[in-house]
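Ticket #4471: structure export looks truncated?
Reporter: QA, pipeline team
Priority: medium

Steps to reproduce: submit the single chain below to the structure queue and open the exported record.
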Amino acid sequence: MSLLHILLNTLYILMQVFTGLIGVYQIALSFFGIWYRRKPLRHAPQKRFAVIIPAHDEERVVGPLIDSLMAQDYPRELFDVHVVADNCTDHTAQVAERHGAIVHVRRDAERRAKGYAIEWMLERLWKSAAHYDAVVMFDADNLVAPDFLRIMNDRLCDGHQVIQGYLGVKNPFDTWVSVSMAISYWFSNRMWQNARQNLGLSCSLGGTGLCIDMALLREMGWGATGLTEDLEFGVRCVERGILPIWAHDAKVYDEKPTTLLASMRQRLRWMQGHFHCARHHMWPLIRAGLRERSLAKLDAGIYLFQPMRFLILFLTSLMMLFQIQTPQTPWHHITALLPTTFWVVVNVLLYLQMPLALLLERCNWRAYFGLIILPFFLWTWGPVVLQAYFTKSNRHWVHTVHKRAIRLDELRSR
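Actual output as written to the record:
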């Protein structure tokens, strides 16, 4: 066997071992996402919230979000809605003010990103005379369920400091891209986030629908100004032994891109930020997890190591394709570490979690038709992750344009 074949064989064996372990790990953890029971509210409203909405040219969608917040089943005197009109060139500030929000106009051509806008707003709150017990963050295109603040109040009263709400999709059936993204989120919410909550592990912060105790924020500082500010803050919390929890009942609805190009641009930004965060936090978390025998820290490190959970599906399906090649191909002699049956079973079990998640989440029947095109969408993660790896030093934030001014009552009628 030539040196090239030896090197290829070694590389492929390492890929098989890593991918197989991660695939089995995900299957094992997802099993714990099946169980879910709604937690009853035990505390009366008492926490005062500062709701922060960073908004860059969001005049089309920010109004319905503010309206959904003003309709919260929570005492109006216990929360304020602060909109950061961040380097806007449209009428975002005027629309937000007309719908009842407190508007803060920010101009900074150099520090242009959601994380910077949040940091700027927090500093303004800390300098003000207003007292808040916690901060809640939303994206401008969101819609918020009426009981969201009641649930966050309850979790804070239970002693939790960082809480992530359920990430729903407000336009799942616009196109095949939006329904593919919606299926991904329904799967993530149930089989990833809920599973980790049941196991006492840290959930992943999603950048919106996020509640943070104000005292903790003052102590830690925000300090998350990269392309994935949510991920940065979340791993810093886990490093300190503070585990963000998952509130499955506190629902936020987000607008997803409707074209493949727009979706890939958004996911590229996520992956670039993910690689940047992994470079600084992955190994410290893994070492701390092993040293302290902390599964929560180890799990957080593993999450950073695989840039996105659906990359697992891409790699395992690739392994299966290599395995079933004919003996005449040059790759045949290096595809026999793990049998073909193993890769078939792993792929089938991983993919079956998608319809299982739809069933458990009681999704609209139209979502099941999206499963037909889903494998192609999952494979588009491959080039996205590859490009992100070679452009991970990029720190330029690209705005995702939002167009659908859907209201909460329209969402309920779908």
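Status: closed, not a bug. The export was complete when the record was re-opened. Leaving a note from the reviewer for reference: Residues 237 and 243 are 7 Å apart (CA to CA).
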